[in-house]
Protein 1
Amino acid sequence: MSERIEIKIDRDMCKGCGICIKYCPKEVLARSEDLNQYDNHYPEVVSADKCISCRRCELYCPDFAIEVKEVKDEKEEKE
Ligand code: SF4
Ligand code: SF4
C-alpha cells in the first residue's frame, strides 16, 4: 500500500501573507490569481508531486489555513 500527500488549503482562513509559499523548499505552492472572500490571494498547489511532506507550510502558517496529510492509497492494494 502506498501513501500520497494531501495538502488541504482553507482559502477563506488565509490572509495572503505568502509565508507558506516563501518557506516551501520545493516550490509546491504559488499565489492564486483569484481572491478569497476577504480579498486575499491564497496559495494554490502547483506541483503536488514535488511535496516532501516536511509540513513547513502547515507549521509556519499563522492562520492554520494549511493541513498536510499522508493518506494511505488503498486503491493500489492487491488482493
Ligand atoms: S509539506 Fe513541505 S514541501 Fe510540501 S507543500 Fe508544505 S512546505 Fe512544501
Ligand atoms: S501562510 Fe497561511 S495565511 Fe499566509 S498565505 Fe499561506 S495559507 Fe495564507
Note: Strands lie at 2-9, 29-31, 43-45, 66-73.
Protein 2
Amino acid sequence: MRPSQKSRAPGVLKLAITRFTNDSLIDDVCEVLDRDGCIIIEDMISADVMDRFIADLAPWLERTPFGEQGFSGDRTRRCSALFAKSLATAEFVQNPIFLGAADAFLRPEFPMAAGEKRQMVKPSIQISVTQAIEIWPGQPAQDLHRDDGMYHAYHPGPQTLLQTLFAGTDFTAKNGATMAIPGSHKWDMDRIPTPQEAVCAEMRRGSGLLYFGSLYHGGGANMTEDERRLAIAISLTQGHRRQEENQYLVVPKETVRKYPRQVQELLGYQVSPPYCGWVEMCCPSIVLEETDFTVASSPSPHG
Ligand SMILES: O=C(O)CCC(=O)C(=O)O
Ligand SMILES: [Fe+2]
C-alpha cells in the first residue's frame, strides 16, 4: 500500500488515490476506502484473462454505436450485458478485494421484526451493472456525478453501490482516464463538484479503480489523436435493490448455468435475507436446476 499524498493544485487541496494490490489486506483496503471513497488496485486482472475477455468482447464492441451527446458521450461506445458475452467476466467480479469490500460496506445488519422477536439479517450482494466503456479521441470529459443517484441515495449516508472500473487499456491523463474526487463520498447533497478538485485515475491495463457510488467521478476527456480508452465497469449492490441492468433478462439461463454457483448468486439467483427474490417461495436458483422450469409446471411445495 502506498499512503495517500496531498498535493497542491492552485488553490485546491487534492488527495491522491491510494494504491493497493490483490495481495493487500482487506482491512487496510477498507480503511482507506472508507476515508477516501476510492482506491486503485494494481494488476487486478491478469493479462491472460483480459486478453480472453477482450477477444470475446471485440465482435460486440465493433457493432456498438456511439452514444448521444452529453452524459453517454457521442465519441463513446458502451457495450453492456457482459456476462452474456464473455465467460471471462466471472473473473472480474470474483476478485477477492472487490467482493471483500462489498461484504464490508454493503451488508449492514437490519433488525427484522415479527411479534416480539428481532432477527438480525444482512442483504445479499448482487450485480447491478456491467458495461465496457470505450472513449474515443475527441470525447470531452463527462460531468462529475454520483452513480448512486439511481438509488435515490442521500448523502452523507450509508453506501448502496460499489463499482470497479477495470482498465482494459492503460488509463492516462491524455486518453480519458476516469477523474475522481477522493473524499467526495462524504459531501452533502448541496456541494457541487468542480473539475479542478478531481484527480486522474492513471493506471496500467489490468488495474482497477474501486469506488463507492457516492463518490463524484466521471470519464476524462480523450485528447489523443488515435488512442481509445477502454474501461470494464462492474457494479455491486444490495440484494433488495433493483439491478440497474436487468441481469435476468440480458443473460440467458443457459449461459447463467455455465457460471460457478457464486457468480449465479451474484447475478441474482439467490434470496436476499430475509426473503427478497423468491420463486414459488423457493430459492430462485430452482429455475436453473430444473431445465424446463415454468411456474405452471412446478406446483408450489407449499400447496
Ligand atoms: O468511463 C469512465 O471513466 C466513467 C464513466 C462513468 O462514470 C459513467 O458512465 O457513469
Ligand atoms: Fe459514473
Note: The pocket of fe (ii) ion (ligand 2) is lined by residues 145, 147, 217 (CB under 6 Å).
Protein 3
Amino acid sequence: MLKSSVSKLFNIKYPIIQGGMAHVSRAELAAAVSNAGGLGLLGSSSMTPEELKEEIQQTRKLTSKPFGVNIAIMSPEPEAKVDICINGKVGIVFTAAGNPKLYTKKLKDAGIKVAHVVPSARLAEKAVQAGVDAVVCEGFEAGGHDGIEELTTLTLVPLVRRAVGNLPLMAAGGISAGSQIAAALALGADGVQIGTLFIATKECSAHSLFKQKIIEANETGTVFVARKYRPQRILRNPFAEKIAELDAKGASADEIRNAYGPERGRKGAIEGDWENGYFNCGQGAALITEIKSIAEVMESLVSGVRNGAKLVSLRGMK
Ligand SMILES: Cc1cc2nc3c(=O)[nH]c(=O)nc-3n(C[C@H](O)[C@H](O)[C@H](O)COP(=O)(O)O)c2cc1C
C-alpha cells in the first residue's frame, strides 16, 4: 500500500506526513494522522519545552503508532526541545529553519530518525552532509516560512532528488489532493509533507475562523510577505495587506519587525483575530472545499494518488 523508502523509514502505512505547524499541530491532530496510517508531527516551535513534554505524553495516550516532533531550529529553546525528545524517547524528529549540523548527530546518536526541511537544492546538500536520514523539500507554495529563493515544488523536487541521491525525500508545498501526491512521486519524491490541508480538519486545534478562511480562500487567497524579516506565506487579511504594503514601499527589516510586534501568529491561529493576527497558509487552500475528519482526508488522499497514477497511464505515459 504505497510503500516507499519514506514509509519504510518511519514504519508507517502511507508516506504522508502531517507537517509540524506552530500553534496548530498538537496531540489530537498528530495522533489522528498517525492512527490513519500517516505520520503525525507535533509542532514545537510555538511550545515551551514543558508544553512539548506534555503534548508528547498526550499523543502517546491517543496513539500507539509512530509519531514525531518538528523542531524549528530558530524557534526559542531548540536545544531544550531536542533534549525533551531524547529523554522522552521520541523516535522521529523533523528539524527546520536552521543549520542541520547543530542537532542531527546528537539526535541520531540517541537512535532518533532525523529529517530536515529545505527550500533549495543547495541547502539539501548541507542536510545530506549533516547526516540526516531524510529530506523534505518545501516549495514556495507552502504555508508558513518559505525560502526566499521562491522555488516552486514542481522545480524543486527533481532538483533536490538530484542533490540527495537515494536518500528518502518528501515533497511539500501546495499539496492538497492525491493527484498532486502522484505528481510529486512522479517528480522523484518518496512521500509528501502536508500542512494547510490538515488544518481544515475536525481534529486540528486551530480556531474555527482559521479553518473557515482556508475553505473560503481562492487562488489569490494567500500572499508571501515580510521577505526581509520573516518570509512567510499567509492568508490575505488586513494584517497581510499592511505588511505587503510595507514590503512594496521597501521598508527595512526593523520597520517590518515593529509592524509585526509579538504574538501575531497566536492571535490568528488560536484566537481567530482576522484583523490583527496572521494565518500561515499555503496556496493549496484554494483546492480545499470542506472541513473533514482526518480519516476522510487520508482516505481521499490515498484514493486520489491511485486515480492520479491511473490518469497518467490512461494518457499513455508508461
Ligand atoms: C500554520 C502553519 C504553521 C507552520 N509552522 C511550521 C513550523 O513551526 N515548523 C516547520 O518546519 N514548518 C511549519 N510549517 C510548514 C508545514 O510544516 C508544511 O511544511 C507546509 O505547511 C507544507 O505546505 P502546505 O501548507 O502547502 O501543505 C507551518 C505551516 C503552517 C500552514
Note: The longest helix spans residues 294-314.
